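Propose amino acids for all 112 sites.
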């Protein structure tokens, strides 16, 4: 066993690093998809639960999101990182809500 490690140790290390690199590339390629999904779920939680229910909405989004995540991402992200992504998704959703609100206000103003 030790002889195999001495002989093929560098090859095994390179293969492991390549595998880890491929997993990271996969995750970063899927990250935009996951972020879009988070914004959608945050919006849905806001519609269902309303204002003033932050912790409940966070738990709800996590409960909805986790089963939908690609397996490669599930294996590599922590709960802390997932919460950070959801908070970023909330910021994006707030920007969208504000843009929608402005557009509705502009539509109410009669044109001369």
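Proposal:
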């Amino acid at each position: 066993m030790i002889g195999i490690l001495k002989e093929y140790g560098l090859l095994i290390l390179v293969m492991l690093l390549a595998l880890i690199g491929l997993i990271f590339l996969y995750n970063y390629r899927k990250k935009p998809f996951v972020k879009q999904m988070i914004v959608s779920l945050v919006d849905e939680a806001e519609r269902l639960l309303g204002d003033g229910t932050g912790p409940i909405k966070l738990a709800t989004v996590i409960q909805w999101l986790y089963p939908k995540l690609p397996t490669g991402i599930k294996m590599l992200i922590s709960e802390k990182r997932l919460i950070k992504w959801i908070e970023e998704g909330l910021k994006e959703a707030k920007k969208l809500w504000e843009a929608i609100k402005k557009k509705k206000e502009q539509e109410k103003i009669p044109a001369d």
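The CA atoms of residues 40 and 51 lie 17 Å apart. The first helix runs from residue 2 to 49.
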